[in-house]
């Protein structure tokens, strides 16, 4: 079998390594490989699945150096800064003495005993001085793209997507795609988010329960990316929020997103009315200096929209949205995020932090979907998107929420119109409210549909949605469910690489190559264990039947007989086939009517 | 709170019983209730969920007498024949001496030692003499509907759906709906399948592995209906196939479907070419006499279509389809099912067995979707649908399979056109091939979409699809995933009862009525256990926050504050709300800016 590719172009030359297994899962037959770029310091990681019949299938790889046995990793030291040379080479940024880290940043009382000791231990790997655009200039991929410059980051992402660097540059320049890459996150393996590219998946982590430790959050991040998360949002609240984020960033090969408002609220002890532009801006700068790649900003929640939610079935369900609504009410003033948006743009542009304009008024129930409050805010997000682009800031727009199937198209069509095709980044949407415990499924349905219709990135939902904090298994279930939704959308959008992946697996299935079928699946460990529950013996891995029907009822074996008779080698024309039928059936009878292939031994 | 209804109309009068728990799950707060019909022998079972604040939500109930503590059940005796009076009352059927049960019926050698003893033990409850239409007349719900007769079965189904009996009669008469109800299955609680009604879900069971016992299959059936399966197909093969079916039928409150070809193949020892119309007809009559309500018949697999599959990625994946293809090739003759279809119609009409015309050439991979072979067969199914209706036989059409999202609409639109809107009964469809182990999800996505567009019944897919036989947990996961897909479609079709269910749960969520939220969900046990993992304490069940965000970040609590201020009682107009804002925010400040409700103690 010849080498098949998916989510990447044909591979000119590459190295393969025997697969590593940080997760303790059984052997997957997944091999780390690299696609060479136009320059020696640009090698794009891929996952190679070697087929038992020879050849391999190359898949998009989000797992970072952790799955490369040649690269030693240590979460206490962080990942190598692969982008450093590119950033320095552009010569348009400068190091500066950053904002001093304060005890409050970690939710500790100012001057608390041990606070400073705690801060010394923020990240044992030590942190670099922060970097920003010289004289506060915009150093964003959008600014470069507009000037016609194709960056190394764009080339990297283009190879991953199997498109030309120029295509990536064009989409970013038009505001139809973003490449989130803070100059202070050099460990990043660049990727692009836009409807012209493969649909992406975000996984949320965060220690809102004091229980979960810093190492746990880092481990959740690497676990999520191993199963295919393209970006990770750190939604931590409470203690050690700054420290947790530092560890996550220094160890993350994927873009990291945050909601700065959460940390700002911690700094004012959870009293929304005490929030101020000054506290918020200070928090944003703190996070820009750490290397956060994109930030959710709920600047579309305007004072006059708040009453629109009063008669809703479930009011405001966005944390950020409800916090901003509370602030607006407390002061009876317009949102400080809206009023200071231009200044916020200049800050983000100088670090190349991407906006994820939050939908603070998204519906929290089927009854509230596509209502006046939601669409009023969406139109304001469209206005803010234009302002952000003028300031050279890359921008995504966040979407719902809970939306029944028949209202999904209307929702994304309006977003694409009022936001000038800016990448849509949707949570689900959930297509019904009645299945707590299964909201990865209620939302996976909506996610697949809205991605087919143009959503660029899907925010995963885990089985614990509405009920509790996702554990390691929930994170895996959420990521795989959303990879299914994203891939189903890629197929529906006619992506050739996506189709090749399905074809490779279906070929393996039809040819009873069980090992290949397992290894080509999104979750080989689960596929293999389900198979082995009924047919554990090794021979069953090559048997020309399976436990569902047994030998007598195996339709695929009968099909092989048919294919054999009628030259199913795709060479035969319908006419040849038709003509040969009678003769064939005589041979067939003479041969004892054996339509089954002999069992493999 | 006033009583809310879903999937049923307002309830005139009813009894409630304390809930039983055959499944060993924790207490659900589910209560068996009944809706009175127009006659004393017609009581429609419902599930009542009592709300902590008073009132209840009434839901469609497929679980049969097993969940009624007032009704003693014994699987060795079978269920009470609730339909018997209705069937006898029509006076158009007659008892007759049925076909003698033979050892071969159970896959035993003719005259084998112990064969007869085995047959004596077929079903300890003993079986009635079979019944059929006098002089072989059509005694189908279709025949009655066409004559303008509204049967008790139609009235029963109408009450379940919350529509008028006349609506049910009209849809059946037009061939747009079926009410599968063999006169030899008097234990049945009638239900209707059609796009004007609630979307239904079928669960497959069957002991293809010799391992699973008769009791296990009966238990799988009751388990599946408990979680919401509307019909069950017994796909047993191998030994004790007749006996297993007898036990399942005598204990089933839902319609039972089969694929007679499987048993016929057993009778000729698995040699497809030795099948004959005589063996097949004998098997069909055997199953009609037992009370099978609908039968999958692959009469659309024509000799000339077989070569169309030769160049497919995955050939023929339907067991029945591949068996018939093998037979056609072996004899180079047209299918005996197609050639004897009229006689088959007369047999089914005299027992009121519903056709489920099988799609033997459905695609088994994304690459084969909507191809020439599939659509050629579909057009033949349209022709057979017309013949069946002429003979008074109720008919459904089976659908794919593996179909990418962008080809689903084309698929169902063609089915509705060529089959004159006959109920479509689809397996999934699966929207990608790459996730073995998660095909309940890959197919749940396609199922929700195709149901929204008009599919009347969905055949579930379990996580074991392609890999092994579903166990008890897989059956539950498959049924609940498909209930989600069916309900999401009911919402998208604008079903008011479906919306009331979501509203009831969202009200409970917004009002922090955790117990109600659990009990209103499709799977209270799972929802409760996920919640308790992070907040196990009883007080947490009434806490005005949850473990996701904690008190400080609870958007819903903030929303309550907003709703309180702006008269969120749905009474206030936007103007009143707007006008009151400034004043309100002053009060709000005066009150210490408390947007949070006090915690419940």
UniProtKB/TrEMBL annotation, chains A, B:
Domain of life: Bacteria
Cross-referenced InterPro entries: ThiC, ThiC-associated_dom, ThiC/Bza_core_dom, ThiC/BzaA/B
Residue positions binding [4Fe-4S] cluster: 546, 549, 554
The keyword tRNA-binding is assigned to this record: no
Record keywords: 4Fe-4S, Iron, Iron-sulfur, Lyase, Metal-binding, S-adenosyl-L-methionine, Thiamine biosynthesis, Zinc
Gene3D superfamilies: 6.10.250.620, Radical SAM ThiC family, central domain
Ranges of Basic and acidic residues composition bias in the record: 28-41
Pathway per the UniProt entry: Cofactor biosynthesis; thiamine diphosphate biosynthesis
Name of the molecule in the record: Phosphomethylpyrimidine synthase
Species per Swiss-Prot/TrEMBL record: Streptomyces polyrhachis
Gene giving rise to this polypeptide: thiC
């Amino acid at each position: 079998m010849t080498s098949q590719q998916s989510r990447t172009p044909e591979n000119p030359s590459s190295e393969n390594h025997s697969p590593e297994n940080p997760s303790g899962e059984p052997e997957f037959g997944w091999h780390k490989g690299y696609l060479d770029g136009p320059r020696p310091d640009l090698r794009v990681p891929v996952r190679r699945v070697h087929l038992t019949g020879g050849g391999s299938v190359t898949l998009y790889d989000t797992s970072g150096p952790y799955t490369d046995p040649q690269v030693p990793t240590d979460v206490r030291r962080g990942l190598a800064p692969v982008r450093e040379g590119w950033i320095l080479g552009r010569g348009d940024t400068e190091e500066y003495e950053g904002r001093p880290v304060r005890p409050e940043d970690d939710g500790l009382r100012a001057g608390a005993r041990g606070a400073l000791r705690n801060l010394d231990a923020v990240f044992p790997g030590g942190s670099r001085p922060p970097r920003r655009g010289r004289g506060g200039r915009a150093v964003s991929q959008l600014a470069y793209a507009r000037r016609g410059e194709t960056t190394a980051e764009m080339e990297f992402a283009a190879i991953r997507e199997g498109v030309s660097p120029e295509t990536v540059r064009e989409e970013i320049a038009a505001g139809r795609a973003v490449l989130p890459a803070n100059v202070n996150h050099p460990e990043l393996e660049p990727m692009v988010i836009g409807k012209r590219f493969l649909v992406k998946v975000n996984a949320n982590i965060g220690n809102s329960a004091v229980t979960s430790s810093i190492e746990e959050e880092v481990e959740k991040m690497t676990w999520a990316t191993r199963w295919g998360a393209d970006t990770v949002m750190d939604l931590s609240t409470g203690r050690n929020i700054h420290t947790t984020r530092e560890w996550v960033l220094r160890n993350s090969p994927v873009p990291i997103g945050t909601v700065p408002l959460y940390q700002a609220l911690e700094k004012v002890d959870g009293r929304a009315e005490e929030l101020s532009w000054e506290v918020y801006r200070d928090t944003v700068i703190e996070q820009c200096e750490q290397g956060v790649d994109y930030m959710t900003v709920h600047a579309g929640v305007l004072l006059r929209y708040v009453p629109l939610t009063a008669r809703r079935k479930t009011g405001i369900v966005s944390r950020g949205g409800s916090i901003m609504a509370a602030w607006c009410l407390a002061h009876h003033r317009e949102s400080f995020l809206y009023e200071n948006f231009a200044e916020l743009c200049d800050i983000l542009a100088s670090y190349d932090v991407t906006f994820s304009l939050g939908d603070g008024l998204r519906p929290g129930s089927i009854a509230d979907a596509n209502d006046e409050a939601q669409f009023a805010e969406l139109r304001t997000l469209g206005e803010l998107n234009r302002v952000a682009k003028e300031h050279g800031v890359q921008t995504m727009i966040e979407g719902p929420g809970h939306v029944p199937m028949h209202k999904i198209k209307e929702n994304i069509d309006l977003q694409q119109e009022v936001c000038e095709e800016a990448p849509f980044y949707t949570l689900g949407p959930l297509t019904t409210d009645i299945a707590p415990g299964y909201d990865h499924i209620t939302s996976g349905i909506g996610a697949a549909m809205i991605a087919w219709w143009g959503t660029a990135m899907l925010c995963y939902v885990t089985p614990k949605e509405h009920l509790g904090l996702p554990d390691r298994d929930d994170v895996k279930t959420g990521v795989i469910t959303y990879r299914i939704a994203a891939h189903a959308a890629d197929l529906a959008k006619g992506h050739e690489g996506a189709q090749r992946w399905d074809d490779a697996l279906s070929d393996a299935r039809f040819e009873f190559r069980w090992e290949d079928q397992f290894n080509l699946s999104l979750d080989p460990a689960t596929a293999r264990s389900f198979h082995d529950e009924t047919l554990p013996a090794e021979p069953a891995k090559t048997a020309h039947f399976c436990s569902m029907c047994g030998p007598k009822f195996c339709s695929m074996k009968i099909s092989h007989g048919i294919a054999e008779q009628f030259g199913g080698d795709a060479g035969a024309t319908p006419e040849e086939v038709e003509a040969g039928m009678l003769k064939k059936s005589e041979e067939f009878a003479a041969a004892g009517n054996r339509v089954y292939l002999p069992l493999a031994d």
